[in-house]
Amino acid sequence: MLLIVRNILSVIALLWLLVGAPVPAWAAMPADPGLDQQVNRCFELRRNQPSEAARIARKALPQAERDPARHIKLLSCLGQSQALAGHAAEALATVDRTLAELKSHPQPPAFNLRVYSNVAVALHVAGQLHRALDYYNLAYDAALAGDSAVAQVSTLINVAIIYSEELDAFDRAEDYFARAQVIADRAALSNPLLAYNRALNAIRAGRDGTVPALLDQAERLARDTDTQLVVARAQAERIALQARNGTGEQARPRLLDIARQQREAQDPSGASTTLVRVATLALADKDPAAALHQATTALQLARSGGFRTEQRDAMRVLLAAQQALGQYKQALATSAQLSDRQLQALRSQNLAGLAALQDRLDDTDRARELAAMRADQRVQALQLESARTLRNLAIAGFCVLALLSAGFYVYQRRVHAELERLSSTDAMTGMLNRRAANQRMAALPAPGDGRRHVAFLVDIDHFKDVNDLHGHEAGDALLVEIGRRLRTEGEPGDIVARWGGEEFLVARANVDPDRVAQIAEDMRACIADRAVSLPTGGAHRLTASIGFACWPFYPDAPAELRGDFHCALSLADRALYASKHGGRDAWTGLWGQAGQDGRPVRALDQPDAAEAVGQLRILTNRAPAQWHARAMAQD
Predict the structure, then answer these.
(1) Vertex 152, ends 194 and 109: CA angle to 5°?
(2) Which end of the chain is less packed: N or C, by CB atoms within 10 Å?
(3) 3-state secondary structure of 368
(4) Does the pLDDT at position 251 exceed 80?
């Protein structure tokens, strides 16, 4: 499978978050205090001062020539330090030396576990993802053999991060995070890193609903273990999430204060990430000059420590700020740098894969050349024919290599396209997933001619009863059929997605306010009016509760008060529950009146009061709308 090459390490100053979680101690060996002190010093400095750690390792290596175990330890520390300092080629050469030394001088399983873990770190940071995964797997096997719960959790986190960051395979990453959580719970391990990285994966997947609880857990565990860097990171992500959802206040000043604290705590990677969040919010606030300043500072911090992922993220928001300011020459240069980085990373992966193939071909050629020399000595008359055979074989080998290279390139393009499709598609229904739907709604241009964009949330009523009565296979078939009907009922430009569980999203652009009620009724009818055939035979009639809202909600208000699609989704969810409270098989919507300048949050909290003062219209086929559950209502 092709690995989509991206920058590998999000946090080098917080290496424990990604690839450096603790593993069992090195195997015991005869004491050498002076050499042991240098080994320990190298491992202490490799995260925050990798160049100094590499210098210590190189200086100590000659002293450990006759001590294989300590020699391997120094080599593994040197490889990590070189990778973290940005010297990928040197790190890969050191990794090869480390593995050769381990092969020549076998060590106990606990020792091998640490070596495999450190080798995987170096390969991970240096961009050799396929090899990193191999050694993470070896480390996990060694952890299982040694019954080390800490090492198992650490390795599963590392593998999950590759799937999340590098492949956008968020569901598969969540599987690994879930396995790590089960092991951590069974062993009573308090691991703030697991909760933090799991929250980041949920953010990337667009599952914001689970993020606050995970961030709370990460911050609580980090405080319990006095891991202040994790506390600051979790706080920054929570503030940024609240700002994106329109519920946070003073987000930019608060994030700037956290970035200042991170720089004082010698966490330039964390400070760079936080400043990228500030720049993103500044762009959303139509303040590109501030975004440019913060993105530039973030890029400088990322470059100071060779943090490749942070550099990529800072360059992306810097590019957006330059475009917003009309600095097209600078934007072109930034775009070219981004493209060069991606191409270089991809080429590194391809060449690494082809190198192994070339080595095998070279071994074959050398064997044939030796056979030809021996045949020449025995049978002089066959010299010319042998030479011709070797030449033809060399040409054939070159042709095979060229064909394999071309085939690998085609395969790479196909797998890349397939991964892009899978990352935006719900596996069961084939519809867009939540992440892809959010991206498409964010990309919609502003509506015109008095029209608005509208988000409809469609929730199947009593769906749990279907699973209980007919089984999950029948439930899955019903979800597929409902998705098909919503796509068929809609217009070609609609954004139709599975939002989660039995809930669907339909977003339609440029909707006339006089048409929105009929659209909602058509959606309700397409589900309720026709029974769905069951795979086990028979049919089942379904109904749906629908909530919808428009955006911008108040088109004449200042930009920060108009309400974006995130606001529309919150209002639509409020309206959806009004439909359920009103008896289900119903639709309810909220439509902000033109000329208003209030906050949409009032419409969310007190829709009836907002309608009474003319701020909005409540649309429903079950008037009056029931905003609270009746006393005896069932969920």
Answers:
(1) 150
(2) C
(3) helix
(4) yes
pLDDT bin (cut points 50, 70, 90) of residue 456 is very high
Residue 356 identity (one-letter amino acid): A
Hey, what are 33's tokens?
A: 């205090």
| Tokens of residue 422, six digits | 């899978």
Q: Where are the alpha helices (DSSP H) in 490-606?
A: 516-528, 559-562, 565-581, 600-605
So what's the pLDDT on residue 20? 37
Mean pLDDT to the nearest integer, 143-165: 81
Q: Which domains does the chain have, with CATH numbers?
A: 339-423 (no CATH), 434-620 (3.30.70.270)
> Alpha-carbon torsion 324, 327, 328, 330, what sign?
negative
Q: Helices marked H in 85-108 — which ranges?
A: 88-104
Count of C-beta atoms within a 10 Å radius of residue 273: 27
369: CB partners within 8 A, 6+ apart: 390
Is residue 58 very low, low, confident or very high in pLDDT (cuts 50, 70, 90)?
Answer: very high
- Work out the pLDDT band at 527, boundaries 50, 70, 90: very high
| Nearest CA among 124, 34, 39 for reference residue 77 | 39
Q: What does the alpha-carbon distance between residue 14 and residue 267 come to, in Å, rounded to a whole number? A: 8
Residue type (1 letter), 587? W
Q: Comparing 192-201, 300-309, 363-372, which segment has the lowest mean pLDDT?
A: 363-372
Residues 230, 222: contact at Cβ < 8 Å?
A: yes
Q: Residue 388 — very low, low, confident or very high, per pLDDT cuts 50/70/90?
A: confident
Give dist(CA 600, CA 459) in Å, integer. 23
DSSP line for 115-170:
HHHHHHHHHHHHT-HHHHHHHHHHHHHHHHHTT-HHHHHHHHHHHHHIIIIIT--H
pLDDT score of 190 more than 60: yes
CA distances to 246, 441, 458, 505, 629 from 568, rounded to whole Å, are 11, 11, 14, 12, 22
| DSSP-derived secondary structure letter, 4 | -
Q: What is the dihedral of CA 417, 418, 422, 423, to 10 degrees?
A: -30
Please give the average per-residue pLDDT across 531-556, as a whole number.
91
Checking if the pLDDT of 363 tops 50, the result is no
Distance separating alpha carbons of residues 285 and 610, to the nearest angstrom: 26
Q: Long-range contacts of range 73-77, CB-CB < 8 Å, 24 or more positions apart?
A: 73/26, 73/39, 74/38, 74/39, 74/42, 75/101, 76/114, 76/115, 76/118, 76/119, 76/122, 77/39, 77/42, 77/43, 77/46, 77/53, 77/118
The pTM is what? 0.49
